[in-house]
Design brief:
binds S-adenosylmethionine, disordered N terminus, 13 helices, eight-stranded mixed sheet
Amino acid sequence: MTPLPTLPAANDPARVAEQYRTDRHLHTRIQTHRLYGVGRELEDQVDDLLALTGTEALLDVGSGPGHFPGRLHAAGHRGRLVGADLSDGMVQTAQGTYPEVEFVQAGADALPFEGETFEVLTARHMLYHVPSVPAALAEFRRVLRPGGRFLAVTNAARYMPELWEVVEAAARLEPALGPLAGTRGSVAAAFSETNGEAWVREAFGHAQLSFSDQSLIFSGPQPVLDYLASHHGWLTLNEDEQASGRVALKTVLEGRFRHGPWMVSKRTAFLVAGG
Ligand SMILES: C[S@@+](CC[C@H](N)C(=O)[O-])C[C@H]1O[C@@H](n2cnc3c(N)ncnc32)[C@H](O)[C@@H]1O
């Protein structure tokens, strides 16, 4: 029997560095959510959970292209706003787009700040990429002031299940799609609400879990294929594997679009601590 390929975990440092060297792949995914997402805006829920007064010193770890602190600045936030990201390319893009916000290149477990510097710390869609979540959370606590607040935003265990069922069905037709099909499991194993709640509680003494349910509605397969092609598990495939993988994905997707638009559900988890 042919052994299954060893798949890098979602928090494998080489995989993370390659995926986020620039914002190209993340940009594709952000655009997919913007163009095809329906339901209550995620940002509204973030704002409700944080209830910022506008004067807090806030650090966004894994800030990527910087949209979150950039949005806060545009909305009139007057407190210090800092974004930290492991990828130098991301930091450069963020700094170019949002010159009024401070961006630093740093890993979540080694933040270049004195203890008790920030009143709010956010980690949005990034803890599943961190090699040691407990080490990162301990560092977050260190830089937060007493009474400071922490918010993690992450994919819930039920994040786009209909999409990943398509990939799994396609991988049964074309086994080369195995690395892509492994994405869902590797992200959930690294950090989701099912293991994350206990980690946050251990680090902060308590954790408040809530969810947001949204959907994406697609009217044809191309944006779905583009979205999937931005994932690390696709980028590891050679040209022939990508060509045959595309055929298999299209075959399965044709069935989903037979009766019109196709809906994919999306559950996001929020973990709040401190305060
Ligand atoms: C999925 S993106 C999320 C970006 C942004 N927070 C958002 O929600 O759009 C993950 C980001 O985390 C960064 N990252 C990954 N591992 C990291 C680490 N150990 N420390 C700091 N940033 C990290 C990546 O470079 C990437 O920019």
